[in-house]
Specification:
By secondary structure, the chain is α/β, with parallel strands linked by helices. It has 14 helices and seven strands. It has a five-stranded mixed sheet. Strands 6-7 form a two-stranded antiparallel ribbon. β2 and β3 form a beta hairpin. GO terms for molecular function: DNA binding; transposase activity.
Length: 370
């Protein structure tokens, strides 16, 4: 959206989003500041902002676009509200602290004006995720499963750390057991009466931690089953690729979003995943450096896929042998392979209209515990 295509009558809106309220600044097509407005982060507030913008707008001007910060968090409601009414929404990053923010200062109004100017200058081109389909359902399931897995690991660590301080008889009986047998044995412990002594408290705490672990284990199993089924439904070709399981496939889908047509090319997808090499050449030195940006969760998922293929995928094994003979290190080879896998994943992504919410009447139910 180059600024030369705008006229003075056009209006561009920048919004700095927060949990309870949003701050908007309106600019004309030549960069002049028209007005600012503070609205509550509710549907009523969104409607108030839109009505205010239309009131400011004068014929033959256009309400060109809205630059919104945090379209995946605090700005999600506003972005969806505007998109459903046919207005163009652009995702704007916060001003860099070492540059714009240090010189211009920091306030909600300043940040909103910065967002509007980024849109007017054509610098901001990122289209927000719609977050209204099967991929959004996967995000919620994966977030719940990941936190449950972390809590389960923390519970096991706490239980073992607690067991170290138990009396020698109890510790000697429980410590040699495998993890699952340890959990079962601790869950069966009984504390008679209130845990008023160290011995009783030890039995009570070990049993409590074991029951917590078992509850989290069932939760992780259930969420994992749903995640696997819905990933297969959303992207059947992706989960069939070598080294790409449900977790990795889900991470790739989350990076692309429900409206994955917002990613213009496989090169853009590679940059989104942080696997595109960054030129770092000067004079007679020609080289590329590691890209430390992008979606780091997607980057880690690509890394896991590459490690699996280096062990079990014969074409990848042959590639590693050839590049090693050419003098590349293992780390450099892995970086090359991550770029190749990103290209393959992009071609296996489902079309934007394919992922759909599973209908409740036809949904497959998880197996019941015995």
């Amino acid at each position: 959206m180059p600024s030369m295509t705008l006229s003075r009558d056009d209006v561009i809106v920048g919004v700095d989003t927060h949990k309870d309220q949003h701050v908007a600044v309106l600019l004309d097509g030549l960069g002049g500041r028209l007005a600012d407005l503070v609205i509550p982060a509710t549907a009523t507030g969104y409607a108030k902002l839109l009505a205010f913008c239309l009131e400011i707008l004068q014929s033959p001007g256009r309400l060109v676009a809205f630059g919104v910060e945090g379209t995946g968090s605090y700005g999600r409601g506003l972005a969806g509200f505007l998109r459903k009414r046919g207005y163009e929404v652009r995702e704007v990053s916060r001003p860099p602290r070492s540059g714009v923010r240090r010189h211009a200062g920091k306030s909600d109004t300043i940040d909103a004006e910065h967002a509007a100017r980024q849109v007017a200058a054509g610098v901001v081109t990122a289209i927000p995720k719609t977050a209204d389909g099967a991929v959004e359902a996967l995000r919620l399931l994966k977030a719940a499963r990941d936190t449950a897995v972390k809590a389960q690991s923390a519970t096991m660590i706490t239980l073992k750390a607690t067991l170290v301080t138990a009396d020698d008889e109890l510790r000697g009986a429980l410590e040699p057991l495998t993890d699952h047998r340890l959990i079962e044995a601790c869950a069966a412990l009984e504390c008679v009466g209130a845990p008023t002594t160290p011995t009783k408290a030890m039995l009570h705490v070990l049993a409590s931690l074991a029951r917590r672990w078992l509850s989290l284990h069932d939760e992780v199993k259930s969420l994992g089953w749903h995640l696997k089924q819905q990933t297969k439904t959303a992207a059947p070709r992706l989960v069939e690729a070598v080294g790409i399981g449900p977790d990795t496939a889900a991470e790739m889908l989350l990076a692309a979003g429900d409206n994955n047509d917002r990613i213009r090319s496989e090169s853009a997808f590679a940059k989104l995943c942080g696997v595109s090499p960054i030129p770092a050449s000067s004079g007679k030195t020609h080289r590329h450096r590691l890209n430390r940006g992008g979606n780091r969760q997607a980057n880690a998922a690509l890394y896991r896929t590459v490690i699996v293929r280096m062990r079990w995928h014969q074409p990848t094994i042959d590639y590693v042998d050839r590049r090693t003979a050419e003098g590349l290190t293992k780390r450099e080879i892995i970086r090359c392979l991550k770029r190749y896998v990103a290209r393959e994943v992009y071609r296996l992504l489902p079309p934007p209209s394919a992922p759909e919410n599973i209908d409740a009447a036809t949904a497959v139910l998880p197996p019941q515990a015995a």
